[in-house]
Specification:
heterodimer, A: four-stranded antiparallel sheet, B: 570 residues, alpha/beta, five-stranded mixed sheet, four-stranded parallel sheet, 34% helix, globular, WD40 repeat-like protein (chain A), Iron hydrogenase (chain B)
Chain lengths: 352, 570
Amino acid sequence: MMDLDFPYKLTCIAELSGHEDRAWNVAWNPTKPLLATCSADKSVRLYSYAFSTSDPPAFTLHTSIPTGHSKTVRAVAWAPSGTTLATASFDANIGIWEREEDGSGEWECMSLLEGHETECKSVAWSASGALLASCSRDKTVWVWEVHPDADFECMGVLMEHSQDVKCVAWHPNEEILASASYDDTIKLYLDDPSEDWFCFATLTGHTSTVWALAWAPGGGYLASASDDCTVRIWKRIAEHQWECVCVLEEHGRTVYSVSWGAAQNAKSTDGENLGWLASAGGDGRINVWELEEAPDATVKTPPKYKVIARIENGHGESDINHLAWCPREGLEGLLASAGDDGLARVWKIEAV
Amino acid sequence: MAFSGALTLTDLNDFITPAQACIKPVEQTNPSTKVNEPGAAATEIQIDASGSYYEVSNGRASGQKLQTAEISLNDCLACSGCITSAESVLITLQSHTEVLSFLSSNPPPSSSSHRIPVLSISPQSLASLAACLSPPPPLAEVLSRVHQFARTLGFEHVFDTTFARELALREHISEFEERKRRGEGALPMLASACPGWICYAEKTHGEMLPFIARTKSPQQVMGTLVKEWLSDKWQKRPDQIYHVTVMPCYDKKLEASRSDFYNDMYATRDVDCVITTGELDRLMREKGWDLAAPPPPSPSSSLTPNPFPTLLTHPGTSSGSYLHSLLSHISESSPVPLTLTTHLPRAAQVDLEEYTLSTPDGTPVFRGAKCYGFRNLQNIVRKVGRAAGVQVGRGAAGRLAGGARRPVRAGKADAAYDYVEVMACPGGCVNGGGQLKPAQAWLDARDPEGFARDWPASGVAVAGLGDASARWGDKAWTREVEKAYWDGREPAFGLPTPPASPKMGGGGAEDPLDALAGRVLADLCRPRNGTKSVRWYEQMDEEAEERRRQCFRTEYREVESEVVGLGVKW
């Protein structure tokens, strides 16, 4: 099963069962030892784990939130504070969840963001936590401003895509939003302080649906996963210009997910380590790529990339719907996955 | 977002994108008693060169012609299968070609089946036409040129819709008083003149309908004036008049098609056909009419006397001044002097403004807002829903675990509105989807300036922001149309406002506008005491009040979603 030619290996350290239908999404809490999963069974499950940088942490079910969404919960996202969770559902709503302060520990829906006409596909918090973005099959991307008391104000309704919008992702340190769509394109948006949010760039190149996006931790690159079985890497070549600099082709089926994490104990050999990129999809394969920028790289020089670890059939015969690197310091080597088999798995990457 | 001045399908979804395909089931009664011969194969459907459908039995040369499925605007308005844009497919029912085809088939006036063609044009349409001319002529001049053109087409009367708006504003104030003072109806009251907003609310925010004013829009008040009041003056039946309006907005076509504005007795609509400013412009081009050229002077007698005052101005906003007419009214009828404060919740965002009227001791007596554009509209829906404690939207709210939401914090920012002037288009009606696009020459002349001024100043690098010029162009163009709308006058609003806004009671010499409005009201409502003029804010007898509701108010209906998202790739 494992390809021993790779310098790293992925080991499954936890198999999280309990969802009664396909698992769509996994989200690591950025500040607390909690992992959230969501499913077509309309529930969100929260798992806690013991923090340990040495031993593989053990995962236990913390709670299961029935959500009340009337359809599939397609995506979950933690606010940077780690106290608020957002859910995106096929019932066209975005739910905002916080833990009761009265000691009962119940997770409560604090707010419901309505406006999308049809299935919500993705939800994302900006790096500062001040903004939330959502997208839907109604072809729109909405930007919300977070106000006190779980109140939200709509800051923009972006109708740039001509088809279903699959994913939204915020730049790690600037207020730039990216969206990916069934129309095969990626759009980038900025806020004009005196007016509205607007699309400043459309990235074309994929020849089929773009399913997922992941910004490099440093913000200089964007990765996109597509139904054309490739992952493309887009590089910032000017303040508002992004160009495709490489096409990663190591998948035989649709790539549904990419996650870009900071490499654990990243060692720079001869350039700047850009972190680890994990990709997975319909072929059940998980690829972990190491990307590195040459020291003499010019603006348009592509990064060097290679697969450093691989797992075949990560969820058996099932599609892998989502991947996420743990963002917490010391735990950057943990990768979570969600599959059509209803399971979430946690993988640990280690040098062979 | 770019707008087109002419009818193309893609331009019609002003701000609301299509959601689902048309789901209206096509019913066909099949009276055929034909018995299939044993063993005969099934029939198939063929389409001939003209696009007709035929049911053809195997082995036969000719088939039976099938009925073509027809979907009316009313079917669309009663369906939530899609929002706005599939209706657009049917909007061809109301087009400038439809107007021409009516005029060419209209029998001569001597014939008993002759219908009097009447054209009513909105002031926003006049402003759009004016802005396209260099230098923009006064609106009265544009109206006069349009009048001349319309007469060449065969229109016997041309009006602007500002007197209808005057009446709509008076009725709007009456309705607000009913809600605020007499507690008859929900607050905040939300403006009812924007058909895009009405359509959206009916389809996705049924919980907002009690807040929306029942007052008819100026277009529909104009419809009543023409088909009820003028027809009476002219001693014609409503169906002996063909009423065309020129509007800045495609959704006005849908508004005119509502069953509420259909006269069953005479099988006629209050507004028979709505064309957009862009369609009028296209009509003039097709007929070789140059709006830029002053028309040959014609003896004024050739223009029929106008029963209505023309081009009344209503200071405040270019979308009808609904909020400002309330501000004036409340200020004028207040026993103590009131002061007006304005607040822009988002700096430089002119589509969202808050207005507060306060007594000398600082107590607010009225809080209103102007809220334009789809985005601001979303926040108003949320805010009104929260403040009034109603469930917003028709999603899973309330079924969510936990249920109880935190009570809304009572802060100054959260104080509830009494009134909101809601318009779906950013910039309001001057920027309607049916308005003219800026001329290329105008764009060429001004864009670089816009770049130099706007972009670097806001800290955004110009390189790679190709879309920005188009966006700036739209905004700047809207400002040009806005300027033409105000016709060189100051749009600035003050309390109290000259010219006189609708007055409540009061003595002294009667204002001619009050007098005419009072006569129209008396003529239409026929109060039992036989008076020839009624003050707008007076209560009449119940039967007269009922007629007043029919003439000046309307109803809204929530449209239930029947759409099930089947067979869709997620």
